[in-house]
Specification:
mainly alpha, two-stranded antiparallel ribbon, globular
């Protein structure tokens, strides 16, 4: 199985987003924000979702959901 060319690593997404995983989790759970997907296109999804490019939410990828 080949790697999805638009999927970012957790570290890459956190660097781009500028927030920690805890800050993202808080924003999603407490403030009702969508979760960023590990996607080069900047997709946002439901916390347990996957974007149209096949990239999971950061919370799903981190094993928090």
């Amino acid at each position: 199985m080949s790697r999805n060319p638009v999927r970012l690593t957790l570290e890459e997404l956190l660097e781009r987003d500028g927030r920690s995983l805890n800050a993202i989790l808080q924003a999603v759970v407490l403030d009702g924000e969508n979760a960023p997907a590990l996607c080069d296109h900047g997709c946002e999804v439901e916390p347990d979702g996957t974007c149209p490019h096949g990239c999971p939410s950061i919370l799903l990828a981190a094993g928090l959901i």
